[in-house]
Amino acid sequence: MQRLLWTLLFALVVLAGRLAQQKPISQVHLSWSEDPQTTMSITWQSAQPLAQPVVQYGEGNSLSQTAVARRIRYEQETGPLYQVTLHNLKPGTTYSYRVGDTTKGWSEVHTFRTAPASPPARFTFTAFADHGVTEAAEQNVRRVLAGEKPAFHIIMGDLSYANGNQPIWDRWFELIEPMTSQIPFMAVPGNHEDERGIRFATYLARFALPGKELYYRFDYGGTRFILFNSQDLRDAEQLRWFENELSQARHDPTVRWVIVCMHHPLYSSTVRRLNDTARIEVLQPLFDRYRPDLVLLGHHHNYERTYPLIGMKPVSQHPSRYRKGQGVIYVTSGGGGKSLYDQTPEQPAFTAKREKCYQYLRVTVSERSLLVECHRTQDDSLLDRFEIVR
């Protein structure tokens, strides 16, 4: 009996230590669910339920305003989730904020910046896919934050690799918090967000995104971003929406650039995967007809960038400079942090550049050009650089 009591006492001490180490507020992340110029959505998790969950925020260094958050619930949750969308913000303005409540504690004070009211001379965003909870994944977060801070980040699917194990989602959101607490983080689902038995329930609960959330669009700096859920490839409603969005973007004089983001590549030289005939059949006619300027992808854990293509045929084989509307350039950046995939010995004719390595993208957008740079995660060296010009 005495031994059992000592065992229970030891377990209570360990539990108390873990609770003491647990941050009262964690997993803070920004996103846009409405107009990037005048709103910002903030999501976080707390160690204990909050009686009065709020965001304190204000221009510059001020925390003079308060917004009440709502509790987000889903059956598999690991802790209380809260979410709020701040409205009536000023475009192109830096705000400070913190989340929590007066009794259970606060997060650190962070900052964010709203989108400008009119297209800026230039802006930069970053992107990668297939992230996970690894040393390389953490290093990629540091690389994104180093140097020039991007306006926002896009992840093209396969985020945490929780696969139904919900605490892994917690670890992943903690890993990316240094980035997502100050840079809006826009996601699109991959196959690993389609969790067995619950499908996209976790993804939908833990993110605040526009429209249907599984697929949506947003505008920033005269650029239309269209995010497509390639896991549900043959969803008729989504396909109608996707074609309508591509068509509208091409006929809207205020849209200077059109960038599509989704998880699965159409064309690839990854061993045992190669070209995706199902997605080529469904999506290639739409891409060829409407010719988005750039298609960003993941799923294959390496880097592969095509020439401008119509069908599978390159319309230019210049190594790094292309004219807008020539064809569609597909960029797979699946080296976010998970184990890497081999590529075929021979490089296909449609491929301009490829490499098996961890990497991330930095895209600089201006009125006259899209400059895409791929950096190796290990040493931040430049792997690829190309430009699309008007």
Question: Would you give an account of this structure?
Answer:
There is one protein chain. 21% of the residues lie in helices and 32% in strands. It contains 6 helices and 25 strands. Strands 12-11-10-23-24-25-20 form a 7-stranded mixed β-sheet, covered by helices on one side. It starts with a helix and ends with a strand. The model is unreliable at 9-20 (pLDDT under 50).
Name the shape in a single word. Answer: globular
| Alpha-beta classification | alpha+beta
> For the terminal residues, how far apart are their CA atoms?
80 Å
> How would you state the average pLDDT, rounded?
94
Profile the largest sheet: 7 strands, mixed
**What is the radius of gyration?**
22 Å
As a percent range, the share of helical residues equals: 10-25%
Spans with pLDDT under 50 lasting ≥5 residues?
A: 9-20
Number of strands: 25
- Strand proportion, as a percent range, falls in 25-35%
Strand order of the largest sheet: 12-11-10-23-24-25-20
Tell me the number of helical segments per DSSP (H or I, 4 or more residues long): 6
Topology overview:
Elements (H helix, E strand, L loop, with lengths): L1 H20 L3 E7 L8 E7 L7 E6 L5 E4 L1 E3 L8 E6 L7 E8 L3 E2 L3 E4 L8 E7 L6 H11 L7 E3 L10 H15 L4 E3 L13 H6 L9 E5 L2 E5 L8 H16 L5 E5 L15 H14 L3 E4 L5 E4 L2 E2 L2 E2 L6 E3 L6 E4 L17 E5 L3 E8 L2 E8 L5 E8 L1
Parallel strand pairs: 10-11, 11-12, 14-15, 15-16, 16-21, 20-25
Antiparallel strand pairs: 1-2, 2-6, 3-4, 3-7, 5-6, 7-8, 7-9, 10-23, 13-14, 17-21, 17-22, 18-19, 23-24, 24-25
